[in-house]
Amino acid sequence: MRIMATIFSIMLFLTFGQASHASTTVGTDSTIKEIVKKSLDAQVKLSEKERDLKEIHEMLIPYFTSSFIQKFLKENLVKTNYGYQTFGTDFARYYIPFFSYDQYTKVVHYNNKYYVLEKRNLDNEGPVLYTSEYQGVCLVNEDGKWKVENVLYDLPIELIKKMNESDKTGLNKNTVALLAENPFFLGWKHLFNRSFYPII
């Protein structure tokens, strides 16, 4: 009886220990998504009123790399009577896409970069037009902070494959593997002669 209790305790420890590890990924995903949300907010605010270049850079530098800021401002910034401002267009190049930020918005870590990716609903219309079925944002670590490096209009096939590694429940295959290797789930699987593995 004592042996069974010990085994059960170990299984519980492994279960919650690995679940905690899996939640770290979820936490990272939500953090990256939040950075992207704030990045778009900063871009949109530039259209609210005229500002000087110093203020504009101060608004963008927490969320974008220096090289991206240069590209974005060159493409979208307009000189006015009292400073600079952005204005809406049918094709706003270098703007963050309007992601849904739900289970269909995927965060992928690939080659030391984070990508926020989403397959677009072609029925939706908006101020930003894309020719590709997918849209994405690439983030790099600059001086210890994750910042937007690029907006992706055409996704490489490698990223699309990574994006599709999530199953119907939204779990990444790495998370599924952790759960599948857990002795607690394996034990119950054999006990009832049925699979508790999520469908991949």
Query: How many β strands by DSSP?
Result: 6
User: What is the overall number of helices?
Assistant: 6
Q: How do the helices and strands follow one another from N- to C-terminus? A: HHHEEEEEEHHH
Overall radius of gyration: 22 Å
Any idea how many domains? 1
- Assembly level: single chain
CATH architecture: Roll
Low-confidence stretches: 10-26, 125-131, 173-180, 183-200
The largest beta-sheet arranges its strands as 3-4-5-6
The shape, in one word, is globular
Distance separating the two termini: 37 Å
Largest sheet, in brief, is: 4 strands, antiparallel
- Measured by DSSP, the beta-strand proportion falls in 15-25%
CATH names the topology as Nuclear Transport Factor 2, Chain: A
Average pLDDT value?
Answer: 76
| Structural class assignment | alpha+beta
Instruction: Supply the CATH class.
Output: Alpha Beta
Please estimate the helix content: 40-55%
Protein name: DUF3993 domain-containing protein
Keywords: Signal
InterPro entries: DUF3993
Signal peptide: 1-21
Written account of the structure:
This is DUF3993 domain-containing protein. InterPro entries: DUF3993. It comes from Heyndrickxia oleronia. Residues 1-21 form the signal peptide. Mean pLDDT is 76; it is low at 10-26, 125-131, 173-180 and 183-200. The protein is 44% helix and 19% strand. A hairpin with a 2-residue loop joins strand 1 and strand 2 (83-86). The strands form two sheets. The chain has a four-stranded antiparallel β-sheet, with helices on both faces. It has a single domain (20-169), classed as Nuclear Transport Factor 2, Chain: A (Roll), CATH 3.10.450. It has 200 residues and is α+β, with helices and mostly antiparallel strands.
